[in-house]
Write a structure and sequence with these properties.
mainly alpha, Arc Repressor Mutant, subunit A, 3 domains, 8 helices, elongated
Length: 209
């Protein structure tokens, strides 16, 4: 607050009360209100994309074992459920106190986005290689390939040649498997569609404000 006061964005006065400690009361200045209006316009006009730790985790998911990935994603879904419950309680409290729509929207939109995030997490699980055994095999081959190249042992060339043959076979198996895996794609399309529909509901909340 001291920095804001130095920039003439707020001003303060000392309020003395009998039998109570003195308090410093801050009030926004006309300069501060102008600056606040500018910042609000920027926030409401530009769709910024924050870097999500979860998305960074997805980007490097191959580092982990499949069982660990599933365990982590299950915990992530649990944390979303907990966040949804907190938002539901805050939303209910806001409605019971007859708060205006701008206040309830502060809880409604995050709640819808949490639901969408839950669906995208299900999409991530669906896309994991182990849903298709041949893709799981390809993933394991690529990890082994990187390991061999890093170690550069005496049988380096021989080991890589063997992996090349295994990869060619796995690719052929993947082509066959994908052709006969319509349920996988249907499940994937359904989850993506559900996620988009929920995100659309979140944007509708904003439009109603």
């Amino acid at each position: 607050m001291n920095k804001l006061e130095q920039k003439n964005l707020v001003e303060s006065t000392i309020k003395h009360s009998t039998g109570k400690p003195s308090r410093r009361i801050y009030t926004i200045t006309s300069t501060g209100r102008t600056e606040l209006s500018k910042k609000l316009k920027d926030v409401l006009s530009i769709n910024t994309k924050p870097i999500s730790p979860f998305e960074l985790g997805i980007a490097y998911i191959d580092i982990l074992e499949f069982a660990d990935v599933i365990q982590c994603l299950d915990k992530y879904i649990e944390s979303i459920e907990m966040r949804k419950e907190r938002l539901k309680k805050m939303l209910q409290s806001a409605r019971e106190s007859n708060s205006n729509y701008r206040i309830t929207a502060l809880y409604e939109r995050p709640l819808e986005l949490a639901k969408a995030e839950e669906k995208w997490d299900e999409v991530a699980i669906t896309l994991l290689p182990d849903e298709l055994s041949s893709l799981k095999k390809l993933r394991e081959i690529m990890i082994e390939n990187n390991k061999i190249q890093e170690e550069s042992g005496e049988t380096y060339q021989k080991d890589l040649s063997k992996l090349d043959n295994e990869m060619l076979q796995a690719l052929e198996d993947a082509k066959k498997e994908v052709k006969n895996y319509d349920p996988f794609f249907e499940k994937l399309k359904t989850r993506i569609k559900e996620a988009y529909e929920i995100e659309t509901e979140a944007w509708k909340v904003l439009k109603q404000i």
